[in-house]
Amino acid sequence: MNTTLTAIPGFRVGHWTNSRAATGVTVILCPAEGCVASASFLGPAPGTREAVLLEPQKKVERIHGLVLTGGSAPGLAAADGVMRYLFERGIGHPTAKAAVPIVPAAVIYDYLLGEVAWPNAEAGYQAADAASEAPVLPGAVGAGAGASCGKYLRPVPTGQGSALVRAGEVRVGALAVVNPVGDVYSPDGRLLAGHGDRAAWLSANLRAGEHTTLLAVGLEAPLQKSEARMLANAAQTALARVVRPSHTPWDGDAAFVLTTAAGAPAPLGVLSLLVQEAVEQAVMAALG
After folding, report:
1. pLDDT tens, 156-198?
2. Is the pLDDT of residue 73 over 80?
3. Quick check: helix, strand or coil at residue 160?
4. How far is the C-alpha of 42 from the C-alpha of 248, rounded, in Å?
5. Cystine design at 209: which of 45, 52, 82, 99 (Cβ 3.0–4.6 Å)?
6. pLDDT value at position 208?
7. pLDDT tens across 202-245, in order?
């Protein structure tokens, strides 16, 4: 039974992993008509591409894929390959001359566990080509290959994880790439990964731009971009429950919400609860 993001019809997920260098890319593909999407960014150091298009007031309503990648800023080049993959298939925002794929991307800094290496455009293309409706692989694969937590003291390997929650016929899936400076806890307060060392945190000498958790939340319910933005904020709230401290001056946390809009309407209050539950479970799933 699939209990990950890809259990929601229309979403496909693929990976490219360089285990030796501890880096990789995870690609989420939307249905051909795209997904209504928005995002929330907390912390001063997010590494992104096409993020401004996700603002509720911007004209483009739908995206066609989402790239979560390692390799720090150079890793954003993986999105070029995903765009080529979609362009070859005529998928994208309609324009006078061609369909232009809209593919936002976000990156983590993963050099601490591996090499100074990053996924390139070909890696992104291969991840898109491998995308399927199979359950999302957890752990040190794709964008989670070099992810870690607890870096205020020393990095502890984490990974990526995915989860699906439901209330009746309403379903929400989430995928998390867990790479914070802080530690990972269960919602009831148990330390799951990291150190739980307050004294070490208070004396840490940290650098911005090396710590980021990436969240992608998938839904079926019809939403406006402004509503997707509200749910992205809810996803960030859930992250703060299971990553402590979170949204620090050294993190660049990114939460994306995408909906196929192919399902029945659902109250925003219900969706907010399910988004938060899915994010919490996806973060824990990343730990294996």
Report:
1. 999 999 999 999 999 999 999 999 999 999 999 999 999 999 9
2. yes
3. strand
4. 8
5. 45
6. 74
7. 998 887 778 999 999 999 999 999 999 999 999 999 999 999 99
CA 225 from chain centre, in angstroms, equals 18
**CB distance 216 to 68 below 8 Å:** yes
Task: Identify whether the C-beta of residue 112 lies closer than 8 Å to the C-beta of residue 146.
Answer: yes
pTM of the model: 0.97
Read off the tokens for 18: 């360089």
User: How many Cα neighbours within 13 Å face the side chain of 94?
Assistant: 2
Amino acid present at 28: I
- Indicate the burial class of 152 (C-beta count within 10 angstroms; 0-12, 13-18, 19 or more): buried
Candidates 29, 144, 135, 151; CA nearest to 81 is 29
Tell me the residue range of the domain where 203 lies.
5-285
CATH of the domain at 129: 3.60.70.12
Question: Across residues 134-153, what is the average pLDDT?
Answer: 97
What is the total count of domains within the chain? 1
Helix (H) or strand (E) holding 200: helix 198-202
The closest of 43, 282, 288 to 181, measured between CA atoms, is 43
Provide DSSP, 239-284. HHHHEES-S-TTB-EEEEEEE---S----HHHHHHHHHHHHHHHHH
Residue 121's φ and ψ, nearest 5 degrees, are -60, -40
In angstroms, rounded to a whole number, what is the distance separating the alpha carbons of residues 19 and 277?
30
